């Protein structure tokens, strides 16, 4: 469907009846890493209740879905606001599982290690590894990608491929922007390394999320009536566009500073930015609400 006029809409209710399913981003839409956005999860709950539609949360979190269920519960985001979760971590696990016995160098925080639970692989040192699995920075509060330049240069020389479990470059944590695994993957590519990107905007995570929606909806599933919701232009919006999915763009996320006041963004600036990026959206809201 084409963008409606005006592009900015009051909330999800303006579009809800046109869609039988939603793929919603999590970080930047439902919470900012510090607190939940109440109107956002209320909007998804009302969508499910009033339309019978299916909501799959699709996130570049480099962890299994079970951990994201727990995280959302800790944020008091109710379980009735979504049907299921598909994570970049899930897709990464599947790729690594296809290489049993491999020595894997994990780059990322200890909290991400459960991504390997139950897999027939060995977490090894840099010298013994045959594959790099990058879930982020070891300490994303203080480190930057440049702190990894020397190590990544050595790994490129050895010809090791990198699996990136989170293609996000940055994400909001409260009022701060935090570097993510995608920033290290970009540097690794710049240095000449080979990178496999599995989360948004790449096809594998959409294949998994849409397959899960089809499982849940059965005969009601219609790919042409799935709406994607997200705040990241290079991930959420580009990924949905590449899948020919309609998009509801949440403008007060990581790009908020580009569109004027976050609560009253300038529609002309939004349209211009989308055009510059070669992207489209059916509609936009400052923050997800009903």
Automatic annotation (TrEMBL):
Q: Domain of life here?
A: Bacteria
GO MF annotation: an example: phosphatase activity
Q: Respond yes or no to whether keyword Hydrolase is given for this record.
A: yes
Gene3D superfamilies associated with the record:
HAD superfamily/HAD-like
Stored InterPro entries: HAD-like_sf, HAD-SF_hydro_IIA, HAD-SF_hydro_IIA_hyp3, HAD_sf
| Name recorded for this polypeptide | TIGR01459 family HAD-type hydrolase
Provide GO CC annotations from the record.
cytoplasm
Task: Cite the entry's keywords alphabetically.
Answer: Hydrolase
